[in-house]
């Protein structure tokens, strides 16, 4: 049920009502070059976010410590409500081909790539860090946006990360 206040015959929805009205995403798409992340349902975008990426965002993640955000098709495979960053959704990097490529170079492919909010020790940093590349390879949004994403993206949803 949608709650609101009527004023002169117009229903004014509360922000909570709007959040509950959002659909469940069946895909997450990231366009690194645009610093944008999109939640999608039936191939249609219903939400977009300005994001921060790894400190060295160009190209696919090759190894631990390269500060790159991976590129390719992965899954959201688990979540952490008690992360050191405000909530986090884990991206299934590395895949077997990422591991094989890193092994061939003698590298550790790294891991623990997440979509997450701001560091817990700086909860209000979102308005200053929006769109800035500051992570070690993760995808960062504001805490308010992370709450919305948390509700709209279930485990096993596909995430496609494009250059």
What does this protein look like?
By secondary structure, the chain is α+β, with helices and mostly antiparallel strands. The chain is built from 4 helices and 10 strands; from the N terminus they run ββαβββββαβαβαβ. The chain has helices at residues 15-21, 96-105, 126-129, 143-152, and strands at residues 4-7, 10-13, 27-31, 36-41, 44-50, 72-80, 88-91, 114-116, 139-140, 158-162. Strands 5-4-3-10-6-7-8-9 form an 8-stranded mixed beta sheet, with helices on one face. The longest helix has 10 residues, at 96-105. The chain is globular. 29% of the residues are buried.
Which terms summarize this structure?
globular; 4 helices; 163 residues; alpha+beta; two-stranded antiparallel ribbon; single chain; 8-stranded mixed sheet
Gist of the model:
This protein has 163 residues and is of the alpha+beta class.
Radius of gyration: 17 Å
Please mark out the parts with pLDDT under 50 across 5 or more consecutive residues, or reply none.
5-17
Global outline: globular
Give the rounded overall mean pLDDT. 89
The fraction of residues assigned to DSSP E strands is 25-35%
SS elements, strand count: 10
Q: Quick one: biggest sheet?
A: 8 strands, mixed
Structural class: alpha+beta
Our measurement of the CA-to-CA distance between the termini, rounded to an integer number of angstroms, reads 40 Å
Please bin the fraction of helical residues: 10-25%
Sheet with most strands: strand arrangement: 5-4-3-10-6-7-8-9
Order of helices and strands, N to C?
EEHEEEEEHEHEHE
């Amino acid at each position: 049920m949608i709650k609101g206040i009527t004023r002169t015959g117009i229903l004014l929805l509360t922000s909570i009502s709007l959040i509950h009205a959002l659909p469940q995403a069946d895909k997450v798409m990231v366009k690194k070059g645009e610093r944008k992340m999109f939640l999608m349902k039936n191939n249609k975008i219903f939400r977009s976010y300005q994001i921060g990426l790894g400190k060295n965002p160009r190209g696919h993640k090759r190894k631990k410590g390269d500060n790159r955000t991976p590129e390719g098709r992965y899954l959201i495979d688990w979540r952490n409500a008690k992360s050191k960053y405000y909530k986090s959704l884990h991206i299934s990097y590395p895949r077997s081909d990422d591991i094989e490529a890193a092994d061939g170079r003698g590298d550790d492919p790294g891991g623990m790539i997440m979509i997450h909010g701001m560091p817990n020790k700086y909860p209000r940093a979102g308005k200053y860090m929006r769109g800035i590349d500051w992570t070690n390879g993760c995808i960062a949004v504001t805490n308010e946006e992370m709450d919305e994403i948390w509700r709209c993206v279930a485990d096993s949803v596909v995430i496609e990360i494009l250059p």
